[in-house]
């Protein structure tokens, strides 16, 4: 019973983070399931089965709060589902040890870009309102879906920073669109796992426990992402991307950092992240103060002066 309660709490926390930042449900849940001895394939299958329900609820909540760009969902979700199905069917024979450090470097660079861009400049003010193109979204979806299925998580960490870095869609809609399209990824990955490994070893009780916690958190996260200022949200997401992928890179065979030096690096990253978030908070408060002190719009618009003068002359 205690295990089920713990799983429900993990599902709640993972979905709260995922629904607010557009990532980390799979990573958080997968980490817990691996620690109790589940194989990678069984772990990823369990998480993705739970995600069918959590992503459906999260997508509905984001849609209700206006956080979804449906063109982006279609253009990235369908290729993502294809990539997830392929990743699920070849997981048992695939090694991601070489790909993980390389992907971590790419995501680390994207995270640094997002953090600096939103912290220093806030929401990008773009003149180019052209939508994100298929030639960008389709390969992104395939790669993100494949990584998600093979690693038990990766749809958000790959998709969210790439869409944020494009500057063509505001942060809350990036998160809402990524969370909504993840439903297609979860369904495709689950089908691939059921074909590849069957249902033996998959605990339906564990799936339902993760699902229950995620269903409670989904509408809360969708509401939070709507009210959090984009500048602050971008700083939070950017720092989270950096911290997550720095850990993957630093502990990989490529660098192999451990012990005190590793925690020192973590401390520096967290300190910079906290400073960036504090900077964004001050910037948001300063902008609100400036808006509050701005002069009110006069009752008569500038174009109405001639009519007012004519009326006065007639009087």
Automatic annotation (TrEMBL):
Superkingdom per UniProt: Bacteria
Annotated membrane topology: Multi-pass membrane protein
UniProt keywords, alphabetically: Cell membrane, Membrane, Transmembrane, Transmembrane helix
Keyword flag Nucleotide-binding: no
Major place of residence: membrane
Location(s), subcellular: Cell membrane; Membrane
Pfam families: TauE (PF01925)
Name this protein carries in UniProt: Probable membrane transporter protein
Organism annotation: Brevibacterium samyangense
């Amino acid at each position: 019973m205690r295990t089920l309660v713990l799983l429900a709490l993990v599902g709640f926390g993972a979905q709260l983070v995922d629904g607010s930042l557009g990532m980390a449900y799979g990573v958080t849940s997968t980490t817990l399931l691996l620690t109790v001895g589940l194989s990678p394939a069984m772990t990823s299958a369990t998480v993705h089965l739970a995600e069918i329900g959590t992503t459906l609820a999260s997508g509905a909540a984001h849609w209700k709060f206006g956080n979804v760009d449906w063109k982006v969902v279609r253009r990235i979700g369908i290729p993502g589902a294809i990539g997830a199905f392929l990743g699920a069917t070849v997981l048992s024979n695939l090694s991601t040890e070489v790909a993980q450090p390389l992907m971590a470097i790419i995501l680390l660079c994207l995270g640094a870009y997002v953090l600096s861009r939103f912290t220093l400049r806030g929401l990008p003010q773009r003149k180019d309102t052209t939508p994100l193109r298929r030639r960008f979204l389709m390969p992104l979806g395939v790669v993100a879906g494949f990584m998600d299925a093979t690693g038990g998580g990766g749809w958000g960490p790959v998709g969210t920073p790439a869409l944020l870095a494009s500057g063509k869609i505001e942060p809350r809609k990036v998160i809402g669109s990524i969370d909504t399209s993840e439903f297609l990824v979860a369904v495709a990955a689950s089908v691939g796992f059921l074909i590849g490994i069957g249902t033996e070893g998959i605990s339906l009780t564990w799936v339902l426990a993760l699902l229950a916690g995620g269903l409670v958190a989904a509408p809360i996260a969708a509401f939070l992402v709507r009210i959090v200022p984009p500048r602050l949200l971008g700083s939070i997401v950017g720092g989270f991307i950096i911290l997550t992928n720095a850990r993957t890179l630093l502990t990989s065979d490529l660098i192999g950092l451990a012990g005190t030096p590793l925690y020192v690096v973590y401390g520096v990253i967290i300190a910079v992240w906290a400073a960036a978030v504090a900077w964004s908070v001050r910037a948001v408060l300063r902008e609100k103060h400036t808006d509050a002190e701005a002069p009110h719009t006069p009752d008569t618009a500038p174009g109405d002066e001639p009519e007012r003068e004519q009326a006065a002359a007639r009087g």
